[in-house]
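Renewal narrative, Specific Aim 1. Our central claim is that a sequence can be written position by position from structural information alone. The example that follows is taken directly from our test logs and has not been curated for this report. It begins with the structure tokens describing the chain, in the order in which they were read.
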């Protein structure tokens, strides 16, 4: 039968959550520079203010689903993307559950079922302030209902 996953785009072949530019923040590696959205007609996307910064997005895994892949797009396909499972009740990001690049290819992650406390942290390592992030997706599967 048909099902719906709250908070996701479930009308496509595989349900997913969009990661929008607004979902990203910077880490503490720079000198408190802000992220900027470049809005040119032929050059748009989110950029860092200092090359030492990394961009991070946090994504909730909807109840009753498992996150299986993360896809990210940007202007420099070779940039590293790391995915972590984090918890609202724990300190530290632990070990990566998946690693890939910013080239739009799905990054296979350790299948991560939703809990009442977990979420994904997606870290993008850029090396120039001109490199941009466009956004991404987290692919989901529906868990069996018991």
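The sequence written for that structure reads:
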């Amino acid at each position: 039968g048909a099902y719906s996953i709250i908070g996701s785009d479930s009308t496509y072949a595989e349900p997913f959550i969009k990661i929008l530019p607004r979902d990203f923040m910077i880490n503490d590696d720079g000198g408190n520079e802000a992220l900027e959205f470049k809005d040119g007609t032929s050059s748009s996307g989110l950029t860092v203010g200092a090359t030492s910064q990394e961009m991070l997005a946090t994504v909730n895994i909807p109840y009753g689903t498992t996150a299986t892949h993360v896809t990210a797009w940007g202007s420099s396909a070779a940039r590293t993307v790391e995915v972590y499972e984090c918890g609202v009740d724990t300190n530290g990001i632990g070990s990566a559950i998946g690693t890939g690049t910013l080239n739009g290819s799905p990054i296979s992650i350790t299948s991560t079922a939703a809990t009442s406390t977990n979420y994904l942290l997606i870290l993008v390592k850029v090396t120039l302030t001109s490199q941009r992030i466009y956004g991404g997706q987290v692919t989901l599967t529906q868990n069996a209902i018991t």
